[in-house]
Specification:
Strands 3-9-10-16-13-12-11 form a seven-stranded mixed beta sheet. The protein contains 13 helices and 23 strands. By secondary structure, the protein is α+β, with helices and mostly antiparallel strands. Glycyl-adenosine-5'-phosphate (GAP) binds next to strand 10, strand 13, strand 16 and helix 9.
Length: 432
């Protein structure tokens, strides 16, 4: 398995991920996605959206605002309970999560203070006055935007139970121990579904969603042996959850959470009904009852998913005595689908034909044209960023109007005609 230093260096060198504010020495735990990283993340999000919203009858989408009434976070329990117990070292003043240290400071062996709760929501002020009345929070989860819009969505779409509301968006947490590259950051993106079900059917749906989400990661290339499920113990469960399973991935720094699937019961809808004074129940036409649906929540992190896809795709092999590094990214996830490369960059007719081919393919795929090195180097560059197909234009192409298409994984080379190239690649790169 790739080590983190190698992966971080590849991500920077090739333009996947850069340290935030690097020219100022970096800004702790924040990362910027470069030209390839942004494509990879967009692919993760669009595959998730296509599979879970567009391809299903029972889930609709939402894009709620990040800033919400502070009442939302009081009702949801986050103001009171979204906190970590912290201790300070009396000698070196360093701060640690209480459950990650023993009796003494791990840095200088100094005495530690009693643990106290530290709320991990970012606070800000709305409007020109910085007082208690204008406090607002950056959302620590996208979920609450869904709960407070439950009735709006249900009445606008006339959905019947069971149905889900999906959302992708940024979330913020003032993490005490961020780290491991993009694994734990203070600003990150979530992809969440709140799936509303009849009480009594929640356990069955809980099992269904655990399985669905595991299969989804496998479908996009994560190897089965690198995924496992872990049930939360009673002391670990969030304040809103009756049961939670984490899908864990075998990262280079150890097994860690990729996505959580929680049975949130009717906790959130009841809390919002109580705090807002609004009726948040669902009217069950068949029985004539007003009920609070139960909620199953598959909640994943896009940054973590992208990191797991990169780790799992990284591969080194020896070809003709030389090391070949490649990202075996699933074709849907690969940031660039096709690279068009002229074999001879000093032959203007070859270059012109290659550029024309790239231009014709661009409306259909993310395409790179590159003529800045020898063909061997150009192939290595594309392997390293996971481009599934390289199209090479040579002198013979001028005569036979055909090109060489090289497959990233098998390195097999085929020679379709230029007129058939688009159809050939569309077939190879068809959506999952
Ligand atoms: N609404 C439920 C919820 O937010 P969570 O387990 O706290 O549950 C869900 O977060 C997912 O969000 C995690 O599985 C992880 O993928 C991602 N996530 C949470 N905190 C993160 C952080 N600090 N940095 C990056 N991703 C994070």
């Amino acid at each position: 398995m790739v080590d983190m230093d190698t992966l971080v260096s590849l991500c920077k060198r090739r333009g996947f991920i850069f340290q935030s504010s690097e020219i100022y020495g970096g800004f702790g735990s924040a990362w910027d996605y470069g030209p390839l990283g942004v494509e990879l993340k967009r692919n993760v999000k669009s595959d998730w959206w296509r599979d879970l919203v567009q391809n299903r009858e029972d889930i609709v989408g939402l894009d709620a605002s990040i800033l919400m009434s502070p009442q939302v976070w009081i009702a949801s329990g986050h103001v009171e309970k979204f906190s970590d117990p912290l201790v300070d070292c009396k000698s070196c003043q360093r701060r640690f999560k209480a459950d990650q240290v023993g009796d003494r400071c791990p840095e200088c062996d100094g005495e530690l203070t009693e643990a106290r709760q530290f709320n991990t929501m970012f606070k800000t002020f709305v409007g020109p006055v910085e007082d208690e009345a204008s406090v607002a929070y950056l959302r620590p989860e996208t979920a609450q935007g869904i709960f407070v819009n439950f009735l709006n969505v249900q009445s606008a779409t006339r959905r019947k139970l069971p149905f889900g509301i999906a959302q992708i968006g940024k979330a913020f947490r003032n993490e005490i121990t961020p780290g491991n590259f993009t694994f734990r950051t203070r600003e990150f993106e979530q992809m969440e579904i709140e799936y509303f079900v009849k009480p009594g059917t929640d356990e069955e749906w809980f099992d269904y969603w655990i399985n669905e989400r595991l299969e989804w990661y496998k479908r996009y290339g994560i190897r089965e042996e690198n995924l496992r499920l872990r049930e939360h113990g009673p002391e670990e469960l969030s304040h809103y959850s009756k049961a939670t399973y984490d899908i864990e991935y075998n990262f280079p720094f150890g097994w860690s959470e990729l996505e959580g699937i929680a049975n949130r019961t009717d906790f959130d809808l009841r809390q919002h009904a109580e705090f807002s004074g609004k009726d948040m129940t669902y009217f069950h036409e068949e029985t004539g009852e007003h009920i609070y649906p139960y909620v199953i929540e598959p909640s994943g992190g896009i940054d973590r998913a992208a990191l797991a896809f990169l780790v799992d795709a990284y591969h080194e092999e020896e070809v003709k005595g030389r090391k070949r590094v490649l990202l075996r990214l699933h074709r849907d996830l690969a940031p660039v689908k096709v690279a068009v490369l002229p074999l001879l960059r000093n032959r203007p007719e070859v270059v012109a034909l290659a550029k024309e081919i790239a231009r014709d393919l661009r409306p259909h795929f993310v395409v790179i044209y590159d003529d800045t090195a020898s063909i061997g180097r150009l192939y290595r560059r594309q392997d390293e960023i996971g481009t599934p197909y390289c199209v090479t234009v040579d002198v013979q192409s001028l005569e036979d109007r055909a090109v060489t298409v090289r497959d990233r994984d098998s390195m097999e080379q085929l020679r379709p005609s230029i007129s058939q190239l688009k159809g050939f690649l569309l077939e190879k790169l068809r959506v999952c």
